Amino acid sequence: MKKIPKPLIPRNKWEENKSIKDDNNVLHQKEQKNSLLSDALKKIKKDIGHSPDIIIREAKIGTVDIVNIAVIYVDGLADKDLIHHTILQNLMVDLRETRLQEEISTEKVAQFIKEFSLSAGELEIIINYPTNYEKMYETILSGDSILLVDGSTEAFKIGTKGWEGRGVEEPSSEQLVRGPKDGFTENIRTNTSLIRRRINDINLVFEPIKVGKRSKTEVAITYINEVANDKIVEEVRERLAKIDIDAILESGYVEALIQDETYTPFPTVYNTERPDAVVGGLLEGRVAILVDGTPFVLVVPALFIHFMQSSEDYYQRADISTLIRLLRVGTFLLSLLTPAAFIAVTTYHQEMLPTTLLISLTAQREGVPFPAFIEAVFMELTFEILREAGVRMPRAVGAAISIVGALVLGQAAVEAGLVSATMVIVVSLTAIASFVTPKFNMAISVRMLRFVFMVLAATFGLFGIIIGLIILIAHLCSLRSFGVPYLLPFAPFVLKDQKDAIIRLSIWSMNTRPKLVSGKDKVKERTSKPSP
Description:
Layout: H1 11-47, E1 54-61, E2 67-74, H2 80-92, H3 109-117, E3 123-126, H4 133-141, E4 145-149, E5 155-158, H5 188-198, E6 204-211, E7 217-224, H6 230-241, H7 251-258, E8 270-272, H8 275-284, E9 287-291, E10 297-300, H9 318-348, H10 355-364, H11 372-392, H12 395-415, H13 421-434, H14 440-460, H15 462-478, E11 480-481, E12 484-485
Antiparallel strand pairs: 1-2, 2-4, 3-5, 4-5, 6-7, 7-9, 8-10, 9-10, 11-12
Helix pairs in contact: 5-8, 9-13, 9-14, 11-12, 11-13, 11-14, 14-15
């Protein structure tokens, strides 16, 4: 029997079925798109969205084919005005007014947004964000914003950092009579700009690195190519890379974790709030370490003589700077040895004193029930307590407490017969001399060593002081700062570097960089002596 063929489907019916099938495919694709974005938002809300400062702004863009987007940022870390003008307004308002509305309905919506809509200066693409949530979270929590587009596996990282910060002010810990009055702040971008203002050189390098397992603090290794020693730069990289800690709250954390020697009272890493001091170190071949969240920048390698110098030395005449440096070295020895020398002479070596002075000292100590060592320890501890109280108390009353407390306690102790008047003079002179040292951390080292020398003087007299000095110098000779001898240029002795050590010569004569610190470019000044 002959089979009767099935009737053909009318053309209009076939077109209708094809249209339905195409619509189903489009709906399926849309469901996949919406599923991708919604799944991402669910995970983000689950992981970090429980905090009220995490803002997730969902919106729709386009007119021909509506596309869902989401902007995620942290309120307080991101600049909301910048987000409004560079992201939301461009996508939700300006995009509707363009003639390229039909392009929004294509599969290249993310590319179109990147090329035509976003006007942000800092823009980075995070590829395949569903498998790279860690980078997204790090971006959001650092103050930048994330833009997710429906149907795209690319996330936009947009630079929108804009938290409140302190302005550029004069450093409180390093005040100068003559010199720049600007200082570093807690914002690392501000600090890099202060350095960049002073060194307009393409060889100035800022190498960013994240330090801290949970804080992910931004740290920048700063140096000048060819001027810095490559071995020192590589050593800094390695030591920073080995840091394994939860958080870096201040540059002191980094200093403690990268310094050469832990068990020493002397600092082997230089820290400063002054941009001109950091720039001076960079021009000599040193490496600076900037830490976000603190105004104190670290400079390595740091030498002993480095702590006896100040930025103001280079803004004065050479003879004045030399005199001030000699004064600093003298007051350093004075604050270290004055109490110990007084104890040794009055206890063991009275024959070294003139007769009239010995009679005067004996008369003053006639009613004092304690030996000179106990007197000195009592007065030193009292002054240390007053100094710490003046630092910790409110600024309005701190100075008054320190001055009044020292005067009242000193006079009362003399009148009560607990200490002699000469001992009060010795301790006061020692305390004042300790403030001449430009760097506070070096002054703290002297304060600690002073008690050691007092014990040696009370035990062995001047012989104990000499033994202590020999051990101290041997210890200083053994120290290194990132491989560079701590007592350079004295031990080892480098003749060319003596022109900017204790004695500072004229600027035109300091034409070379430090020998063991700098890199290939050793010449700093190429001009000869100026003609009269």
